[in-house]
Amino acid sequence: MTHPQSNWRKRLARIAPRDRLELEVLVGCIVGLLLLVTVTKLAGAVLAGETLEFDKRILLALRDAADPERPIGPRWLVGAALDITALGSGTVLGLVVFAVAGFLVLHGQWRSGVFVTVASLGGWFLNSALKLAFQRARPTVVPHLREVMTMSFPSGHALISAVVYLTLGTLLMRIAKSRVARLYCMTLAMLANFLIGVSRVYLGVHYPTDVLAGWLIGFLWALLCWIVERALERRGALKRERYA
Predict the structure, then answer these.
(1) Which of 29, 95, 167, 194 is the most buried (most CB within 10 A)?
(2) Does residue 205 carry a pLDDT above 60?
(3) 241 in any annotated domain
(4) What is the DSSP string of 148-196?
(5) No. of helices (H) and no. of strands (E), the chain
(6) Which range marks the domain in which residue 57 is found?
(7) Residue 244 falls inside a structural domain
């Protein structure tokens, strides 16, 4: 008896690569539209103050009720959170993008290097523009466990790390030869982004909705960049590069 999943894979394999590319772009556009609607509703709720009580409850739940300066959990957890949150800092992400883009260019994959650089710089610009537009102050309900200077909404660590790590995850998926390896690459990228976002809330420097918005917007921007890259490939303006 043939398994239904096998039939589905066989049908997909029979689709011409060019048509499959069009299908991928179409699905990406639909997902992007859904994300845009979700982000718009979330931003509206934040501006109206509808999420403030929820945000405060989460932040307080992560602190000792008798002493808000002390987060819940063992002492080493604070150090771990500080280390993890550094993975989403501008310095670390900038070095990662520079290193990866340089490696790609040196190996002749300059289109991929430009793609990673443009997607990442666009994420930084988008984050700065949104912070200036929303002007949401940082949480004051609990003491900050790390110094912060910019506005709160959306979380820049969550947004930019989503753009950078998901873009790199997508790039690694092209290099990976097995389905398990491709799944591993994307899972690792999403896990890193998730931990960075959670660390921002744990350290008291962001409201949960700041991080949620950062994740959604970062994913939306990474998806948009991927759609543009695939559309250019579809038109023949950008041929897929081979990796050794």
Answers:
(1) 167
(2) yes
(3) no
(4) --S--SS-HHHHHHHHHHHHHHHHHHHH--SHHHHHHHHHHHHHHHHHH
(5) 9, 0
(6) 19-63+70-235
(7) no
